[in-house]
Structure formats: C-alpha cells, structure tokens
Amino acid sequence: MAARPTWQGHLKLSLVTCPVALYTATTSAADVRFHLINPDTHNRIRMVPTDPDAGPVERSHLVRGYEVSKDEYVLFDDADFDKVRLDSTKTIAIDKFVDEAEIDRLYWDDPFFVVPEKGAGVEAFAVIRDAMQKQGKVALGQLVLRGKERQLALEVRGKGLLAYTLRAHDEVRDADDYFDDIPKVKADADMVEIAARIIAQKEADFDPTAFKDRYDDALREMIKAKTKGGKGLVDVAEPDDTNVIDLMAALKNSLKGSAGGARKPAPKKPAAKSAPRKKTA
User: Relative to the CA of 223, which of 21, 89, 197, 211 has its CA 20 to 30 Å away?
Assistant: First the structure.
C-alpha cells in the first residue's frame, strides 16, 4: 500500500482487540496549487519564522505556547504532549452502537479507511467487522487524532471498515440562529406543484464521477493561456436574480426545458451501504 497510515493502534470491542491502521480516504493531490511569488524577481517567497527581537529563528528550535494573559504564555515542547496520554491515543474502543439515521449530517466530518495490520490480528478484525455487518449498526468510539480527541463513527465497507470523525457538539452551530430571520412566506400551491414536477423530471442516480470541477478546469485553461503568453482571461456570465413578477413564467419555462431533456430514470443499482454525508464538506 503506497499511502502512509495517518494513525496506527488497536481496535477494541469488549475483550476482542486487533492492530489496525487508519488511512485518509480522500485526497487533494490533483488540486491546482499556487505559491507566493515576488513579481519583480519571479522568486518564490520563503516563509521564515522571525522573532521581532532576535530575528530569523530555526523552525526546529520553536515550541508551542498557550496564551494565559496578554503576551504571557505557558510553553509546551514535544515531551510535554507525550505526557498527555489517554486510552484513545493508541486504541479505538467501540463503546456503543447506534442507527445511522440518528447521527445528524452536520456532525459527519473526515473519512478514513480502517485496515487490519497483517498477522494474527486479521481474524479478530474479521470477527468485529462481520458482527457489525450482521447487526447493521454504526459503531461509536473515541480516538486522539492530530492533537485532539474525536468521536468516531465506524461502518463496514467491503473487506474493511470506514471511520468518520464526528464533530463535537460545541463545534456545530445552531441552525435557528441563521434560519429564524427567514421571513415566513406561503408559497403558491400551483408554483410548488410545477417546481415539484421539475424536480421529478431531473431525478437521477448519484454518480460522483459525473462531477467536474469547472473552476479548477478554468484555472488550468488560464495557466495554459498565460504559459503561451496570452492574457488568460476566463469570462463567465453572472446569472440574473429571479424576478418575483415572472416567477410563474420562469417555472413554466423551466418545466418545458427540463421536459425536453428528461430521461427515464435508470433502474437503481444495488450499492454499498454508506452513511449520509455532507458534501465533500
């Protein structure tokens, strides 16, 4: 396996334990990336840690500090962090099982593949995996990951497990703080019916390969144009806001337009079970 594990430790269900590794399930390697450049010299800018009194400092010499009052810090080095040891630092202990639908989509965060380490622990991993699949539940556990203890939701995915970190309750904002100010509007029943028909005509199966990052493509086109000496401009027309006066006409025209491109929904293919997610936020 080419990728390096993000975390290595043990998976534990009651008295059954096995060594596992976590691998990040997503990648941003294909993203367009930019560097800061001095336009006068075309040199890439290097970010050098600098002390306002002592000047440039070697990064390896730095430690972290927690500000307890204005300009006063409690200092921590690596040895201090090593002293903060919890069971979840090296062990994912499954402590409860819940229905997938009980976890609000707002709480789902980053996905990881859970893979058993080669050796005698593979059989124990298979027992935990197959028992989870038989019960049809999502397992919950804790894990210290990237300097923070997170709750994990684990589900069976093929021969392995898929683990999602879950956001803590205090990390999720209350929707009412944003939605309470939305004016109460009674939508016209006929307009709702037309909009519902438009939605029905656009029904499709989810195909993640069909999505293309057009912004990324536009950046690549601009890079190509600039490389060849062009101006590298990409023009995109701004959409007009819907005119409330013409809303019914817009809906009717939309219905006609979508009918022309409507297709009969393809038979649903059985898919591997996966928890409802936010975009890939």
Answer: 211
Amino acid at 17: T
Segment 148-175, tens digit of pLDDT: 899 999 999 999 999 999 999 999 999 9
- Tell me the C-alpha distance between 117 and 214, whole Å: 39
At which residue do the structure tokens 């013409």 appear?
246
Sort strands 91-94 and 7-13 into parallel, antiparallel or unpaired: parallel
Which pLDDT tens digit goes with each residue over 84-113?
A: 878 888 999 999 999 999 999 999 999 999
DSSP state of 258: H
Q: What is the pTM of this model?
A: 0.73
For residue 116, the cross-strand partners are 20
Q: Which amino acid is at 201?
A: Q
Q: How many CB atoms sit inside 10 A of residue 112's CB?
A: 23
Query: Distance between terminal CA atoms of the chain?
Result: 26
Quickly count: other Cβ atoms within 10 Å of residue 17's Cβ: 17
22 CB-contact burial (10 Å; exposed 0-12 / middle 13-18 / buried 19+): buried
Residue partners of 62: CB distance under 8 A and separation at least 6: 49
